[in-house]
Each structure stands twice: as C-alpha cells, then as structure tokens.
Amino acid sequence: MSYASQQPGGYKNHLENIAIVGAGGNAGTYIVDSLLKTGKHKVTAITRVDSTSKAAAGVEVKRVNYDEPSSLVNALQGQDALIITMGVMAPRDQQTKLIEAAAAAKVPWILPNEFGNDNANVLMRNDVIINSSKTQYRDHIEELGVSSWIGFCCNFWYEFSLGAGSYGIDIMKRTATFYDDGKTRLNTTTFPQVGHGVAGLLNLKVLPDNEQDTSPCLSNFRNRFVYVSSFCVNQHEMLDSLMRVTKTTTQDWKVEYRPIDEVMKEAREKVANGDRSGMINVLYGRNFFKDNGGNYEKTKGLQNDILGLPKEDLDEFTKIAVERAEKGIHY
What we know:
The structure is a single chain. By secondary structure, this protein is an alpha/beta fold. 37% of the residues lie in helices and 16% in strands. The chain is built from 13 helices and twelve strands. Helix 1 packs across helix 8 (191-202) and helix 2 (69-76) crosses helix 3. The protein starts with 16 loop residues before the first strand and ends with a helix.
C-alpha cells in the first residue's frame, strides 16, 4: 500500500481534471452536473468533431477524430480521470481507442463503459453477451499498465427502465408480467444517483495519508467494482408504487405470471434468429434469476454510505417513470 506521505513534493492527492465521453447522454448529463456541483473538478467533454451535442455551462469541450489517435491523446493530456459513457450502438473499437489514448496521455484513472450489471459476477456476465464483451476493455487497461480502472455497478436505471416497460410492467397498457412469483429483488438506480455516485467516488482522496489513515480512498477501488443503488425492489413493489402514483387499484391492472426460465429461453431464441426484440428480456431477465445476480446489495454490499449518497423516495421516481411513459420517452 502506498501513502500520500510517501509521495514526492508537489504530489496531488485528489482528482481535479475529469474528462468524460458521453457528457450529453442519459447518465452523462447527471454525472457532469454532479461533478460541477462539487466545485472541485474541471470537467472536459470529449466529443466527435461532427457532434451537435451542446455541453453544459462550465464544461470545456475538446473535439476529436477517432481515426486520428493523436487528437485523442492531445485531448486527454493533463486529465486525472476519464469517464466513458456510450450507448450499446457505439462502434466497438471506440472504447479501445480511448483506453489506448488515455495510456499514451498517462491518465491514471479510467471509469470504462460499465454503468450496469455486476460484471464481476462471472455467471451473470457470461449469460449476457453485451456484459461479457466488456471484460476485454478492463483487461486491456491492465495490460497497458498505465491507468487503473474502476467499474461502476449501478444496474439498470429505474425511471428509464420502468417507464420503458423493461421490468415487465407496461404503464400505458396497465399490464404486468411477473417473473416466477414476482418477488425476486434486484438493485436499480436513478439517473441522479448515478451522477451523485460518480462524483462521490471521484471526490475521494487517491491514497491514504499514512498507515493510520483508514478513511475511504480511490485506491481502495483500483481495478475493482464499486456498487451503488437507489432501491432494492421486486416487481410487486414496483407495481404497488405505480398504483400509488397513478391512483389505481389491482382491478385496473392485468397481471400474469411467467417462469423466468421460459421468458429467457424465448428471448434467447429470438436473438439467435436475428430478432433484436428479444435483447431487452435477455438483458433484464437475467436479473430475476433466483441466484441474486441482480441483488448485488445482498451478495456484495453497497458503497452508498462511503460515497455520501442520499436516500431516495421510490414513488418520486416512479412518478418520473410514468411521465416518461406518457410522453413515449424510451431512450
């Protein structure tokens, strides 16, 4: 273990300069907002030269060409950390190029494009190809030997997923498909909590001051996952919250029960036959297995307290999910 007291003169035991890819995205917007509100970070948005996305006030913008490695390296010079948030449709080599540029620019910390399931859970990771494909990026960071990674595990976004019907509940049609008995718990996180969590993490000092210092440090999470969550709920509790928010009763909802194994088998067959509509049930359905793969609060514990995260109100964010569903927002 290294200590701040052992470092050479001028050593900075905190992160100041933070670069982010995807600053205008769903999670990125909240991450940037939370980082800026700390007043401790200079935030730089890394964006393509042809991007029309506008950065928030107070954010520096550096435009890059992914086909020119030097433009990426130049954009990352002097950064203490790189946060990568990208959609599933982003080019597969884009994250590799960012990781290699970060190494060339000697960026010490990378939060790779995780922001989802517990990808330290080998069984769960291997069951979902999108998750298993992320291992290569963490491995590549370690192979380059310059940066350290921290995987941010928040599972699926609550208001986004509930509003889009991905938890088996269709708000507009007033239908619910409960997997097995509908009582399997999973962790789920709101967009604001993701922002709070990343800011809380990057606010930590890098190293303990000395041998007696036991306070949380960024180095505690070097090449590991950090676990955050807003709620640990089951489908019954989600529906109960929806009924409170929409002032409906069980008589207003049509509920069916299906074995999760059956749902997953059907979804996998669709994907195998080129039908991408099955992908949502593959991604989400794996969380409802009885092995607690989606309930990492039970299997791994949370770092909410260490990161100073607030307690959130379920119904408040269920209301946002309802509003998203009514507006047809599924992105």
